[in-house]
Amino acid sequence: MSSSQLNLGNKSYNPDVLSCLANLSNDEVFTPPQLANKVLDLLPEEIWHDSSVTFLDPFTKTGVFLREITKRLLKGLEDEIPDLQQRIDHILNYQVWGIAITELTALLSRRTLYCSKKANGKYSIDNMFDTPDGHIHYKAIEHMWAGDKCVYCGAKRDQYDRSSELENYTYEFIHTYHPERIFNMQFDVIVGNPPYQLSDGGFGKSAAPIYQKFVEQAQKMNPRYISMIIPSRWFGGGKGLNDFRASMLSDKRIRQLVDFENANDCFPGVDLAGGVCYFLWDRDHPGQCEVKSVINGDECTSVRDLDEFKIFVRNSRAVPIIRKVLAFKEPTMDQQVSSRKPFGLATNVRPRQKGDLILHWQNGEGKFPSTEVTNGREWIKKYKVICAKTAYDHAGSPDKNGMRKVFTKINILNPNVVCTETYLVAGAFDSEKEALNLKSYMETRFFRFLVSQFMVSQDITKDRFAFVPIQDCTQEWSDEKLYKKYGIDDDEQAFIESVIRPMDGDK
Predict the structure, then answer these.
(1) How far apart are CA 159 and CA 168, in angstroms?
(2) Confidence class for position 6, pLDDT limits 50, 70, 90
(3) Helical H runs in 199-335?
(4) Which of 401, 390, 392, 391 minimizes the C-alpha distance to 261?
(5) Does the pLDDT at position 336 exceed 90?
(6) Using 50, 70 and 90 to split pLDDT, how confident is the model at 312?
(7) Is 99 in a helix, a strand, or coil?
């Protein structure tokens, strides 16, 4: 065998995959080798020197994880297995397995790992396989329909009950109640970058998340370690992620979590709302989690319980500030802010020809009859502070300078003025002065910083205000006054002002 056939351990090795990638679903996010290695770095160093440890990538696409695992084992097992060919054969036959997500990715992964699309082919670096698949498995299967949905993944029948010529996204790893039977063995380590969502033609808001099902299936197999890259949207729940969020945040086996607020820091050119994270799940580690927050290129690490607060606080530097505020045990703004449709009026409702009220909508105001107001009638005669339910910041993420504004604009509605579902009512008062004071409070960096800790999307809902204490609105509030009240020190103030930009018109 020539040296060129044994160059898997050469860091310059780079299979030609560009033509293949161009034909794959654009719903998949492919993992750069550098990122794959950061994920593998979470695993304990000793496993790379253990010839008995078994690895599984259950959703391999390019085979990058399998390749990088093999390269590490090639180096780590040099002393135990000095002969290079014997070492390659041992690793590929007894330590490394993969499940491809499509027939094409199976071929691509074999080309990456074995240097041949056939594991037993002429140019394969392995001398032992007697089948073309090797240990990279692919099986075409069908959804199991129960009514209009797949019982395994939740795919809608009218969208995914397709002909055999079309991709139907039936990932084998999650389309079974017994994933351990795919290879009939126990794995020590499960790693990879699972599919993120059921395809809707792109990363649309309507797409249903699916990555959580891969995590749950991996946990069901009870390996020693799980390390995966997944979107960070699960921090905020919703879209079928509430149970997954609760389970993850309460799971003391999550030993490390690395969170990127901007997905571009992991996947250049990929706009993934809410950012991305990777984690290490350690079966034998019932303890606190080391959280590394990467925000605008800056890293901050803390050791804490993931479920310390109502939601997961992404930025480790925010944790001591939130602790100081919550220590006052004051009622919070989520108890005061309205739910969606504060007056029962949908976004598309428009002013009428006649009416005893004024309707405030996205593009102006006009007459409206009070008989059509079904909610919030107790607020009609009051001064109301409103904010748009859509955040100023794109997808809830900071701008290129790492700063958020949070609210587009905060307005006061006079008595006899109501609004559509476009807005939330943050408070209602008998006096205009109290409304003005709440508005000024909401415009402080302090207020918007606390709201931003709940922002994992562009939507502003009442629960986003759960860290914000209600203040006495008979008096005015400023950042300086709030910093003093809650004991926010100079470094914490500087941090708040580095991530929250002034409202329009502020200096």
Answers:
(1) 9
(2) very low
(3) 211-220, 242-250, 319-326
(4) 401
(5) yes
(6) confident
(7) strand
Q: Tokens at residue 350, please?
A: 């428009």
Q: How far is CA 473 from the centre of its chain?
A: 37
pLDDT for the residue 25: 45
Residue 42 has which token pair?
Answer: 């979470």
**Residue 267 confidence (pLDDT):** 80
So where are the chain's domains?
3-138+186-195+221-314, 333-499
3-state secondary structure of 326: helix
- Close Cβ partners of 278 (under 8 Å, ≥ 6 residues apart): 38, 39, 42, 227, 228, 229, 230, 257, 258
Task: Give phi and psi for 368, each to the nearest 5.
Answer: -155, 140
CA nearest to 60, candidates 120, 114, 134, 138 = 138
Distance CA(398)–CA(503), nearest Å, equals 14
Q: How many CA within 13 A on the CB side of residue 460?
A: 30
In this predicted structure, the answer to whether residue 497 has a pLDDT above a threshold of 80 is yes
**pLDDT of 40 above 80:** yes
Rounded (5°) CA angle 66-249-230? 30
Encoded tokens for 113: 């790992």
CATH number of 3-138+186-195+221-314: 3.40.50
How far apart CA 423 and CA 21 sit, in angstroms, is 43
Maximal C-alpha separation, the chain: 89
| Residue given tokens 């020539």 in the structure block | 2
Indicate the pairing of strand 298-304 with strand 289-295: antiparallel
Those residues with Cβ within 8 angstroms of residue 418's Cβ, 6 or more apart along the chain or in another chain: 343, 345, 357, 358, 359, 360, 368, 373, 376, 379, 380
Bridge partners of residue 229, in order along the sequence: 278
Q: Secondary structure of 347-398 in the HEC alphabet?
A: CCCCCCCCCCEEEEECCEEEEECHHHCCCCHHHCCCEEEEEECECCCHHHCC
Amino acid at 95: Q
